[in-house]
């Protein structure tokens, strides 16, 4: 092989992007103060911290059941009301149901909402309504509208137009066309997405609880603030149970909905 085979010019298409990315990452690491000595020191402190979390406070289990139930109820109410509101927004954002001006306006609003995390929405709501589950429920409702509204609108736009024309041909009213031609067709999709959103809402409720929505998230935050690691361990175990159980239930119900929705 000649010296030309090892020249930088031959490999510049691959070398230059990798070099540029490496320099960019190194610069970002300096700005973000990423330091290996702090990582090493933090790992030692983290292991001590983690060791304190390995022993749960069994006596606190009964006290934390009520906040855990409150977290589930916040997620349930937020998901249910959010799904209903998202269905209305989805109809208004579907091109085969709504006029173009309405579709574009609603799509813009849904995109605007998705740009705001639930935690940021909750901060606004806490300022307006105060701390507590109500602000958490409203935050989940608004978050569900942004996410589910777009998914519902896309599902409605994929509805078979032949079915709608057949219902219109027998003289059905607009309400009947909407119900039998659109809503019944997308119902399995709506239920499936709502169950997935409930699974997500459980996790969000824990995070929102630490910010001020109450529930097990608030108890977890307070335990850490008071350095009560045993109680925090119990709260973490309850959060883990909530997340795993809600995920398994959601997966099971969604599989059942998909099976029933398949044509026979």
Automatic annotation (TrEMBL):
<keyword id="KW-1133">Transmembrane helix</keyword>
<dbReference type="Pfam" id="PF00528">
    <property type="entry name" value="BPD_transp_1"/>
</dbReference>
<feature type="transmembrane region" description="Helical">
    <location>
        <begin position="119"/>
        <end position="142"/>
    </location>
</feature>
<feature type="transmembrane region" description="Helical">
    <location>
        <begin position="72"/>
        <end position="98"/>
    </location>
</feature>
<feature type="transmembrane region" description="Helical">
    <location>
        <begin position="229"/>
        <end position="253"/>
    </location>
</feature>
<feature type="domain" description="ABC transmembrane type-1">
    <location>
        <begin position="68"/>
        <end position="250"/>
    </location>
</feature>
<keyword id="KW-0472">Membrane</keyword>
<dbReference type="GO" id="GO:0005886">
    <property type="term" value="C:plasma membrane"/>
</dbReference>
<keyword id="KW-0812">Transmembrane</keyword>
<dbReference type="InterPro" id="IPR000515">
    <property type="entry name" value="MetI-like"/>
</dbReference>
<keyword id="KW-1003">Cell membrane</keyword>
<feature type="transmembrane region" description="Helical">
    <location>
        <begin position="177"/>
        <end position="195"/>
    </location>
</feature>
<dbReference type="GO" id="GO:0015416">
    <property type="term" value="F:ABC-type phosphonate transporter activity"/>
</dbReference>
<keyword id="KW-0813">Transport</keyword>
<comment type="similarity">
    <text>Belongs to the binding-protein-dependent transport system permease family.</text>
</comment>
<dbReference type="InterPro" id="IPR035906">
    <property type="entry name" value="MetI-like_sf"/>
</dbReference>
<dbReference type="InterPro" id="IPR005769">
    <property type="entry name" value="PhnE/PtxC"/>
</dbReference>
<protein>
    <submittedName>
        <fullName>Phosphonate transport system permease protein</fullName>
    </submittedName>
</protein>
